[in-house]
Amino acid sequence: MIHYHGGPITPDPCAMKAWKGRHAFISFANASQLNLASEICQSFALDNGAFTAWKAAGKNKIDWSDYYAFVERWKNHPGLDFAIIPDVIDGGAEENDALLAEWPHGSFVGVPVWHMNESDDRFIRLCNEYPRVAIGSCGEYDVKSPLKAVARLKDIIRHVVDEHGQPITKLHGLRMLNPTIFTRLPLASADSTNVARNIGIDSAWKGTYSPQSKETRASILVERIESFNSMSCLNYCEKRDRFSMQLQMEI
Most CB within 10 Å of its CB: which of 105, 106, 134, 222? Predict the structure, then answer.
């Protein structure tokens, strides 16, 4: 799987340690390091910044024209893998499907988002219509409860796998670079801002041999994350995984 490390990772020397020869996930809400990422990464992907935009706009309709122009600028860059199509964080299928219809850049560049508290039918439909589908966590299935999220995802992914247990489309896990999650699922890619958030927390780096420079910390975190891979196929046991999901909901 491809491990996308979210930015910004500051200062720039830390970003270079984390990204050089690897993969970056750049948010439209803070794209200050996009030029750097586009030069040193194997590839990069663009996030729509929906959460930040939705918080700012409240319940008002968001004008995504600036994001569409942003993707237009970068969509032909050789290193761009994909761009996340705008989504409504707490919206329903109707609102999110309307944004898919409005998207001007096609399904090769654009990746739709399915949120784990949405219907199974919408996920199955998207997987049959798009070459890649992003999975977002929200509500009761937040990635902060990783085993609960895994149980939910196993229960839905089983509907879109072939006879070998492999998904019929590429699946991307938003904020899912936690090995507890992605090592249990057949994801093609995942992202997180783990490196960006943790290199500056001095209290998390203790002991005689703890690295003091942010650059070294970035290198260590990236190596730890990328030492794990996703599953090649879905390992689903209906009785066990449904019990696991029920147990997590009770907890």
Answer: 134
